């Protein structure tokens, strides 16, 4: 199935979810003013109600969370005005860990998906959650997070200095994440994890270790976003880099029409963490993932590599995450198969890499793997004189001479591996 056809299924599923959370004949609007409790209004609301919050600074009353949502189809709307005085701000109080958290009752963010409780949470998914116009700041874990929610929308929110992840839809489905701003996270400003059928449109993500990340998800469409001033702009990572168990299918991540530039922030994360090992200067990196599209993006001014496609075990050789270390459990194929990297504008990348053993990869586009990957297609990227590195023959570690970028996946009848398929960039003309 081509990527364009898959995107139509995303839109159809999402349309049903949006309709579900937008209607309700008996819905009530609960208004909240400064000095009042948003959580009290949430607790008093019935499924399908709207919580309309006036501008001001609010402190959550839930012990672990700033705001906790456990009811179907609630709509949280911040009645935002101009400037800082017009914001609806949620601040951390006491030992609170995450700012806004929507999940079924009893399903905390620490519950593991592959446990009995996690499976029970999945069987009781929330149906619908909408949040717009909130500024969530200063929480030590996550800013705005869903888990086990079917039909969610995050629109025009702001995540500020939430130290783990900013905006974080997890184990959820049929979602829209649009026109948000997120910055100041030590892991990821925005992370789609373990989720299905998600559109990520028009967000601004900066000042974090990773601007935007996807792991163990299926059908994620990412367009018209700006990722800049991070250590890495976009990270598409193997299940071993994720906190959720792998899925049978983790395909069709389409990254197109994004601006990914100047991601040269010295890495602020703990050096013992996975994200802390990322060198600064990365635009877009695919690390041990298959069946995805990187097309029509502007990728400029990233000091190490503009677009990198690397095998998981290849990239992690001689590190604490090396695949050949005793007891290491590899959670899926580490190869990079059937990826399309097409029609991107790559310019001024790779010119100032941090000193390290992988400096030979510094370029506008790099392909580096020894897992036996196949079916990849690099085509029509520009300008014609972009710099590149490839581990395809005749590359050798003796000379570090680059081979050609692979094109064996550029024809529909070209080599396939493990059920992979040919991709196309999204055709915007017939939406």
Topology:
Elements: H1 3-22, E1 29-32, H2 38-44, E2 50-53, E3 56-59, E4 65-69, E5 74-78, E6 88-91, E7 98-102, H3 116-123, E8 126-132, E9 134-137, E10 142-147, E11 149-155, E12 158-160, E13 165-170, E14 173-178, E15 181-183, E16 188-193, E17 196-201, E18 204-206, E19 210-215, E20 218-223, E21 226-228, E22 232-237, E23 253-256, E24 259-261, E25 282-287, E26 293-295, E27 298-300, E28 305-310, H4 312-315, E29 340-342, E30 345-347, E31 363-368, E32 377-379, E33 388-390
Parallel strand pairs: 1-2, 2-5, 3-6, 4-7, 5-8, 6-9, 7-10, 8-11, 9-12, 10-13, 11-14, 12-15, 13-16, 14-17, 15-18, 16-19, 17-20, 18-21, 19-22, 20-23, 21-24, 22-25, 23-26, 24-27, 25-28, 26-29, 27-30, 28-31, 29-32, 31-33
> Biggest β-sheet, characterized?
12 strands, parallel
Oligomer: single chain
Q: What is the number of strand segments?
A: 33
Average pLDDT, all residues: 89
CATH-defined fold name: Pectate Lyase C-like
Low-confidence stretches: 1-23, 413-423
Could you name the CATH class?
Answer: Mainly Beta
Assigned CATH superfamily: Single-stranded right-handed beta-helix, Pectin lyase-like
Spatially, the strands of the biggest sheet line up as 1-2-5-8-11-14-17-20-23-26-29-32
Distance between the termini: 18 Å
By CATH, the architecture is named 3 Solenoid
Give the fraction of residues assigned to helices: under 10%
State the domain count. Answer: 1
Shape: elongated
State the helix count. Answer: 4
Structural class: mainly beta
Beta-strand content estimate: 35-45%
| Cα-atom radius of gyration | 22 Å
